[in-house]
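User: I'm curious what two different proteins look like when written out as structure tokens. Can you demonstrate?

Assistant: Sure. I'll show them one after the other, since each token string lines up with its own sequence. Here's the first protein:
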Amino acid sequence: MLGKILIYTGNGEGKTTAALGHAIRFSGYGKKVAILQFMKGRKTGEHKFFENNKLIDLYLFGPPYFLVTTQATLGGWIKGKRIKFVSLDLFSGKRIKNRVVADKLASNLKKSSFGTHKKKAKEGMEFAKKLLLENKYKLIILDEILYAIKFKLVNEDEVISLLERRKSIHFILTGRSASERITKIADLVTELEEKKHYFYEEKKTFPKLDF
């Protein structure tokens, strides 16, 4: 049986969470799952949770941080504009644990550059191809891959080619802005819509960027 392609996209919360739910379900039936997280480089709660699950392997393919400044940079890139950053002045005077936020952003900016994002994303795609050939996972999750495509960190043709060679392996893709081409070949597409988010209510001075 040909593996299914599932997509979780949209501006709302829950895309990664939905994918992880499938991973738990698959492992519950004794099937191996690989989760490749693009544009993410820190061990968050899900990574720590799955560390003790022998059936679920989670791999990170992103810098340690995805900053507001980085998002503005990537947004400028896909619009054909020169690299530009959100002004660090937006964060002047704000402190986290006695550190000025602007200083912390500036110190981490190099680690989160466009070049670093692209290098890590390329490594992720090469690894995904390797897993496909090994054929030991029943489900492969490409978390935030749709966002990576939008920001031109990975080539959409390369992702489609990978999916077309899936045979009996199931794939889940997450991230905003699923393209028409990928949506067309998917077997299931769920779009999550944001109605309200406490983050923007509590931090009205923090810019919400949507590219």
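Here's a second, unrelated protein for contrast:
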Amino acid sequence: MIRAVAFDLDGTLIQTERLKAQSYAQAAVQLKPASLSEQVVIDAFKDFVGGSREEVTKGLLARFDLEEAARRRMDEFSASAPWQVLARLRLQIYQEIISNEKTLQDAAWPHNMALLHQIQAANCTLGLATMSHCDQVERALHALQLEDVFSFIATREDVENPKPDPEIYLLLAKELGVSPHELLVIEDSVSGVRAGLAAGATVLAVATPLTQKQLHQSGLLDEEFIVDGPESLQEKMANLFRKFNE
């Protein structure tokens, strides 16, 4: 039986992965303006969605041969390694992007937001599990007027191990007072799906343009648990509740 529903934030409720892709692209182009375009970096970002900041940064650094350009700016960013230059430059740009509340509001996924409010109206217990840091989460929830929706919010500060480790979903289930097997997780990335499955939860993946290919190629979920478009979300969600609550 499903007794609680847990939503991811980045990429699921709000298109922050798209905004992050833009910030990585702008940072990479700043390091190597003569030979890179933002679109090329955004396309490459798809291969790293759901990874940690270090994993994504190191991946892009290697993909576009940015190490030497980053090394030259290590003192400027008080960095101990070249990848930290790209990470800190990218973070500066990202903070500027998300400082605009209207930008966050415009980045919300309407279909997932509608599902969230539908579940809330049905008085089902709701939780949030995100690898974003607390200040970023507070800013996003305020912009989307979701401050009072979730019974428990777990952020990067609350766990030692990031997704795909199951720690955050095990913590969420405990705080919501349910067994992990009674938890339905709504995710958008392979990393998040792995975390939910490893915790023992049922996982529904709502694909985005950045994650759709990875989700299908991963083989982690049967097709009935992957939503490729908003038009099939309600149907697949209803089927899941029928299946697990009969």
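A detail about the second structure: The first strand starts at residue 4 and ends at 7.
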